[in-house]
Every structure is written in structure tokens, then in C-alpha cells.
Amino acid sequence: LQALDFLHSNQVIHRDVKSSSILLGMDGSVRLADFGLCAQLSPEEDKQSSMVGTAHGMAPAGSSGAHGPKVDIWSLGMVTVEKVEENLLTL
After folding, report:
1. pTM, full prediction
2. How many helices (H) and strands (E) does the chain have?
């Protein structure tokens, strides 16, 4: 969440948050990677209209028109659900 907060406070949206773009360090640290689809927003235009990203974790707003930082939060939520489900299956 800190990485997304930093991006969003600098008017940047990641647009492709998925499990493969979240890196876990041996020390338990978590890093966000894969910034190739980031978009710079402006104060005048706080949404993007281009549709990019991985369809599986894409927010409904991301596929239906203009979208902003909320798409990253949605995608992070999808990754969280995915990881919880994986862990439940291995119990």
C-alpha cells in the first residue's frame, strides 16, 4: 500500500498491479515492480482513458472508460483474494 500511496500522491497510476509485480524479499520486505504501464496524471486530468493491464485483475472501471488511482486499489484487492485462496487450498 505504501508504494501505491507514493505513486498516487505523485499523480501516477500503476495500471498493472498483479501477483507477478509484487516482489517478496528474503527479509519479508515487499516491493512493487513492473512500471511499464504507469501513467502520469495531471491536476487537470486525474483519470486515464486508455485501457491497458492484465485482464484478470483489471477493475471494471479500467475496462469501461476513464479511470484513476482506484483501479490500482482494486487490482491489489484482487491479488490479495488470489493469494488468500491459494493459501486456503494448500491447508
Report:
1. 0.73
2. 3, 4
Contact 59, 36 (CB under 8 A): no
* 2-89 CATH choice from 2.60.40.1930, 1.10.510.10, 3.40.1160.10, 3.30.310.180: 1.10.510.10
Tens digit of pLDDT for each residue in 38-54?
999 987 765 565 555 56
Catalytic residue numbers? 16
Rounded distance, CA 13 to CA 31, Å? 16
Instruction: Decide if 41 contacts 47 (C-beta within 8 A).
Output: yes
As a whole number of angstroms, the distance between CA 27 and CA 47 comes to 36
Cell numbers standing for residue 38: 504507469
Rounded CA separation 32/24 (Å): 9
- What number of residues does the chain have? 91
